[in-house]
Design a protein that fits this description.
alpha+beta, 3 domains, 3-stranded antiparallel sheet, 15 helices, 14 strands
Length: about 500
């Protein structure tokens, strides 16, 4: 009876031991599965840490804003009131639900070649809130401005010519006449041309008298030569736009030196001497002045014989006087036309505020491009993550537009012309690829959450396995004990019969 009971218990313990072994094997497989799951969670987290997103920066990457459809395609400080058109691989403008209805008004099927001008007032008024009447008024003023500008250009194209001559500087100097009143150092009746040819000098005196005499001399030269070299553009000597005045002004430092009594005896310039008295060499003086004048105006070209000639006006001739009178009449007409044009511009500019004009320019750029290039609709472009993916995969590009206004002389209307530059987003100066902090923060939270779940599962499995291993060890001891008793009983039984 005892042997049978022991045998039954041994069978149960053996069964239980096998069951525990199977359970431990199953739990071990679960742990391996959790290890693989944790590896995947870690990899997903690492991938999230390496995730890049495109951002827009106006300060070389110091701060960023989202590269969103709104920031690209609606006027704001971010885009500095300049649209950055979202374009697809065919060059069409990508529009969202807000722009779709306007795009359909321009081109119902999205094809290029739509009509923007016929719906322009309606669309702009709807988008900006500016009354349609104000927009139309500005358009009318544009026409008036174009008309006045065309008139101005037409007058400008018909400017009457004033005859000029070309001679060497030596011959031009002969127009300066005699030396009377220009200082001492000349014989009576001598001329500027004589003094220039012979290298004559003029005594300037000393101190304040010297600088005053030099000033008077320069004024004389400016006034005398100016009317021949500048003709109708000749102005008063104090006019700083007068190139001869500016040329003479190069002697300002020399005059300062003279006032200070500096020793200019060894000077290579026209003025020489010391505090006892200064003089000026006429040839050097005139050469310095004409040299400075030539540098400023470009008047002076070398002919085939190697002589530099200058274009000048023979202001004493009847031919010049007649032409100058006609030019004066033309100038009066031109000035009136210019005044009319400037008033047209001022009237137009005062109709709308700078902000309103900026908004109109912004939407003009977008919808004129839609008319020229066509459009395509995408309801998802307002999703920043989606837009980022499309831009990073180069399925969408960014296009800038340069608008130039030209005057059509035939129709006397302003005509806008667009020129386009398209490139992938990552090539734009203001676009930066940066770590996506929002994705990283979300990934960290997801990582911690999943890691805690896996850790809890591992802890439960480890606890269960530890309990099973303890039970397994106890069963092994019990089986050993039963087998030992069985073996001992068997040995005693057989020893009795032996």
């Amino acid at each position: 009876m005892g042997m049978a009971a022991s045998q039954a218990r041994l069978g149960y313990l053996t069964f239980r031991k096998n069951t525990i072994g199977g359970e431990l094997n199953r739990l071990s497989m679960q742990k391996m599965s959790l290890t693989r799951e944790m590896s995947k969670v870690s990899k997903d987290y690492q991938d999230a840490l390496n995730t890049k997103t495109l951002k827009w920066s106006n300060n070389a990457g110091v701060t960023y804003v989202d590269l969103s459809y709104q920031n690209l395609m609606t006027p704001s400080n971010m885009n500095q009131q300049t649209p950055y058109l979202l374009t697809d691989t065919s060059g069409k403008i990508v529009v969202d639900s807000a722009y779709k209805k306007y795009a359909e008004m321009i081109s119902a099927d999205g094809k290029a070649g739509g009509d923007w001008e016929s719906v322009r007032t309606q669309v702009l008024s709807s988008l900006t809130g500016i009354p349609a009447e104000s927009i139309d008024n500005v358009g009318s003023m544009d026409d008036a401005t174009a008309e006045s500008l065309a008139t101005l250009w037409e007058i400008e194209d018909n400017e009457p010519d004033i005859p000029t001559k070309n001679t060497s500087f030596e011959k031009l100097i002969s127009k300066m006449g005699s030396s009377t009143g220009i200082g001492s150092g000349f014989s009576k009746g001598s001329t500027w041309a004589d003094a220039y040819k012979n290298g004559g000098t003029i005594s300037l005196g000393s101190g304040a008298t010297a600088t005053a005499n030099l000033d008077a001399l320069l004024t004389n030269i400016t006034n005398t030569l100016g009317k021949y070299l500048l003709g109708p553009d000749y102005g008063v000597v104090s006019d700083e736009k007068n190139p001869l005045y500016q040329a003479c002004d190069t002697f300002a430092k020399i005059k300062e030196s003279m006032e200070a009594g500096a020793d200019l005896s060894a000077a290579t310039s026209a003025v020489q001497g010391n505090s006892s008295g200064y003089s000026v060499n006429v040839k050097l003086l005139l050469d310095e002045i004409i040299g400075a004048y030539t540098n400023q105006t470009g008047n002076g070209s070398m002919n085939s014989s190697g002589t530099t000639t200058y274009e000048w006006y023979d202001v004493d001739s009847t031919e010049y006087l007649d032409a100058a009178a006609k030019h004066a009449e033309w100038q009066k007409t031109y000035d009136e036309a210019l005044d009319n044009y400037e008033k047209s511009v001022q009237t137009k500019n005062s109709t709308l505020s700078a902000e309103q004009e900026s908004q109109i320019d912004f939407y003009d750029t977008i919808f004129s491009a839609i008319a020229e290039k066509g459009w395509t609709y995408n309801s998802e472009v307002r999703d920043t993550d989606y837009l980022n993916q499309m831009l990073q995969n180069n399925l969408y590009t960014l296009t800038t537009v340069e608008r130039n206004q030209e005057l059509d002389q035939d129709s006397r209307e302003f005509v806008w012309e667009n020129s386009y530059t398209t490139d992938i987003a990552s090539n734009f100066t203001n676009v930066y690829s940066v770590n996506d902090n929002s994705v990283q923060n979300e990934a960290l939270a997801e990582y911690e959450y999943k890691k805690n779940i896996i850790s809890a599962k591992e802890t439960r499995i480890d606890t269960r396995m530890q309990d099973l291993q303890t039970e397994q060890a106890a069963i092994n001891q019990m089986i050993q004990g039963i087998e030992q008793v069985r073996n001992d009983n068997t040995e005693r039984t057989f020893s009795i019969f032996s």
